[in-house]
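User: Fold this; tokens only.

Assistant: Input:
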Amino acid sequence: MTRHVVLLRGVNLGPRNRIAMPRLREMLSGAGFGDVRTYVQSGNAVLSSDASPSEVARLCTRLIAARLGLEVDVVVRTRDELAAVVRRDPLGDVAANPKRYQVTFLASELEPAIVERIESAGAGQERVCIIGREVYAWHPDGVGRSKLATLLSGRGLGVPATARNWTTVTSLLALADE
């Protein structure tokens, strides 16, 4: 069985898309996934399955829609794919605060025009690096007023996507290794 990291987009950030993590664990376990664990309240789960990452994403999306009536984007990486994301760490030399260093996980690679828009959106000391299905972004002044962060968190990327800060990324890898 392969360890998978399941990332839900836009969960528990406000009054919409509320999913209790004990309920999510129960639903995923009940659907046949093994060793299900969740991390913090923002829609992160680690589980075991013989299914491919894209199949796990489809199953989780359908399950959440059927059981909770919520339309939530789901992006999945295997434990090994997440380990590669951490190993690459292209902005680690400048990203001094892991809470302001984010990785946006994409369901598929971006169109070239979107890549251009992202690469030109950073302001001041912000940095961005796009590698395959991940966008690494350093927001030294925070994400609150960052046009780059706004672009990465919106629906304008053309593919399902969800971001996690570096602390969450490395914590999910550690959880997948337990």
